[in-house]
Amino acid sequence: MSVTVSDPVVERIVATISRSATEIRQGLVGRRGTVDEENPSGETQLEADVWADELLADRLTAIDGVGQYASEERPEPIDCGGDPATESGTYAVAADPLDGSSNLTSTNSMGTIFGVYDDTVPALGETIVAAGYVLYGPITTMVIATDDTVTEYELTGGERTVVRRDVTLPDDPVVYGFGGRVPEWPEAFEAYASEIEQELKLRYSGAMIGDVNQVLTYGGIFGYPGLKSRPEGKLRLQFEGNPIGYVIEQAGGRSSNGDRSLLAVEPDELHDRTPLHVGNAALIDRLESALDSRSH
Length: 296
Ligand code: FDP
Known about the structure:
Blueprint: H1 8-27, E1 34-38, E2 44-46, H2 47-61, E3 66-71, E4 78-79, E5 91-99, E6 110-117, E7 128-136, E8 140-146, E9 150-156, E10 159-164, E11 175-178, H3 187-199, E12 201-202, H4 208-218, E13 220-224, E14 235-236, H5 237-250, E15 254-256, E16 273-274, E17 276-279, H6 281-295
Parallel strand pairs: 3-5, 11-12, 11-13
Antiparallel strand pairs: 1-2, 3-4, 5-6, 6-7, 7-8, 8-9, 9-10, 13-17, 14-16, 15-17
Helix pairs in contact: 1-2, 3-6
Bound molecules: 2,6-di-O-phosphono-beta-D-fructofuranose.
């Protein structure tokens, strides 16, 4: 049993990623070593990062209606015919082929994230028409958000089976996870985090997708704030912030860069970083007030 996405190009993109996920998972074996390259954000790449990116690039650029493929692992988008900004039915796909890949060394959870933009990237998150992620946990699952709904699937042997329809964040939040070292947190964020740790249970896996999926399952908040030494934070707006912001907002939650929805943040560059917070709306509202009141 499977839910289809109404736009045929978007459905082909989603189907291609879901079919590739089982292969990506199997292909991780033997690819834990590093390569002699850095990604455009200056981070060490693993063989698996490069391999998963090439696999997705080959398959997604072959789809009629995909005008651009952009990834965290390559400096520029691949232009593959058609301009998403001006041609209706042509989209840009932005992906983080292996989110949390430093977890591969210790074989903990990781993910694949994608956003389908109805514009050339870098683009506003508000132009996303569908987004989602694959979680390589004990089970390989996929969450797909469209304008209509959020659906969770299990993936086996290239097949996708619905396990939860109309996914929404539970009303009563349970878990939180915040990235970055505590001494690096700005004072206002530290004060907010101290309140939250009295109220919720800590869950931090080191892979954003693992932590975000806990928030989607149990309710709560995940954040990677701007740090004292790096006010722009660590996570990337086009590949991580916007797609995950879209998923969580479609599931009834909120996303924020500390000030406004991630989807409303104007990008400058393809590899822009952003402070990133997603979760139950009330927790994000409180976070924004806490950061705002300390800045005056
Ligand atoms: P990674 O560097 O392993 O790819 O995408 C960046 C990311 O992982 C996120 O998945 C994760 O939430 C974060 O970085 C972890 O950063 P810290 O090691 O600083 O906790």
